[in-house]
Design brief:
Pfam families: S-methyl_trans (PF02574). By secondary structure, the chain is an alpha/beta fold. The chain has four helices and four strands. The strands form two sheets. It has a two-stranded parallel ribbon with strand order 1-2. The two termini are about 30 Å apart.
Length: about 130
Amino acid sequence: MGHKAIQLLCDIRDEYETEKCQIVINGCIGTRDDAYNLATTMTVEEAQAHHTIQIDVFSQTKANMITVFTLNYPEEVAGMEAIEFVDKVTQNLAIDYMINCAYPSSFEHVLMPDEPWTARIHGVKVRGGTFTLI
């Protein structure tokens, strides 16, 4: 399915892209199940295997970038690998990183301003309020 979706977007890009209006295609990766109902979670190894399949599909297309959304527990985040690791194995291919839809209390304690990997985070979209599961 991912191949077909990216190919459709590439066809649109080929038809409408101009020098003044470049079109970037983004492959989006999400959680295995409902990110807001953690009835089941994955181990680091399971998350790595799951997301590797998704990343491999996009890597075989003409997508310009991949974005990962809504990872809600540490094992899944670790399964996506850390910024330093991704930068190392891709020779800094990633344009940047973003923290999306997260409570500041869930990540502020790990941000280290003097560490180079922290400078790779170019976007933060936080959630307001306090964390509660309905």
